[in-house]
Amino acid sequence: MKNTVFIFFLISINNYAQNSTEIKETFPVFPVCELLPEKFHQDCFNETVDEHIQNNFVYPKQAWDNDLEAMVKVKFDIDINGTIKNITPNSSVIGVSFFDRESLNLAKKLFNDSAKKVIESLPDAIPAKKGNIAIKKTFLVSIKYQIPRKLGFDDVDSPPIFELCADEENKKLCFIKFIEDHISKNFKYPKRAIKKGEEGNVFIQFDMTSDGLYTNFTTIGENRILEDEAYRIMIKLPSFEPAKYRDKYVTTTYGTTISFKLNQ
After folding, report:
1. Where are the CATH 3.30.2420 domain residues in the chain?
2. pTM summary value
3. Which helix (H) or strand (E) covers residue 233, if one does?
4. Which residues of 205-232 are buried (b: 16+ CB within 10 A; e: fewer)?
5. From the CB of residue 187, how many other CB atoms can be counted at a distance below 10 Å?
6. Which residues in the chain belong to E strands, given as ranges?
7. Residues near 175 by Cβ (< 8 Å), separated by ≥ 6?
8. Which tens digits make up the pLDDT trace of 34-92?
């Protein structure tokens, strides 16, 4: 499963500190970085590894289905030929206890195999050099496999579903239309705002949780009277089935603008 949350860290285990009396030592260079000045090679190396992990990251399906998360530290060498060698993953399963070692080892293997596959598909590089002689360099990368609990509205596979949208093919479009209709049906211009000649737009944002609750309402508007009315309208929204991402319920955030215009 791709496009799932991960956190990436990369360090070189070998020491690159130099002084004026030491033999010059260079960083490994991936093909995409060759044309850059030498001073940018290390940053380009890190960015290339980061992008490669993003493009090749796959969450183990069995781990995903069982809500397992892990941090995997992967040590690897870039040898004197510029080839990725000696890949050694070591995973720590997070937030869950196992009653037997066999189950724990199976879970760790799922993440180790996934992380190893990502790193072993890195392209060959021009090896690091010391005094123009190719040398082996060792790196350590940490990848966190984390199941998302909250995603933006555009990132979920299925939006929160109101009853009237349950059978609609385009559920996101139906959701947006339902919100618009709800605002229209429940809209009342506050009498205090009319008396004061108050008008303007109110942006209101809120979470729709994986438990089916509305929380964290925030409003930004011209004045408090209009903001309070926007809040009154939105808290009247009906119950819903939570948003889904890869068949898991997640919390999502949605925001919309309510316009208050006099003499319409």
Report:
1. 152-260
2. 0.78
3. helix 224-234
4. ebbbbbeeebeeeebebebebbbbbbbe
5. 13
6. 6-12, 25-26, 69-78, 84-94, 128-130, 133-135, 137-145, 150-152, 200-208, 214-220, 243-245, 248-260
7. 159, 160, 161, 162, 165
8. 999 989 999 999 999 999 999 999 999 999 999 999 999 999 999 999 999 999 999 99
Residues of the chain above pLDDT 70, percent: 91
Q: Tens digits of per-residue pLDDT, 155-178? A: 999 999 999 999 999 999 999 999
Are 260 and 226 within 8 A, CB to CB?
Answer: yes
Rounded CA separation 133/129 (Å) = 5
The residue among 245, 75, 95 whose CA lies nearest residue 143 is 75
Looking at the chain, how many residues does it have?
264
Q: Are 150 and 251 in contact (CB under 8 A)?
A: yes
Phi and psi angles of residue 64, each rounded to the nearest 5 degrees, phi first:
-60, -45
Question: CATH assignment of 152-260?
Answer: 3.30.2420
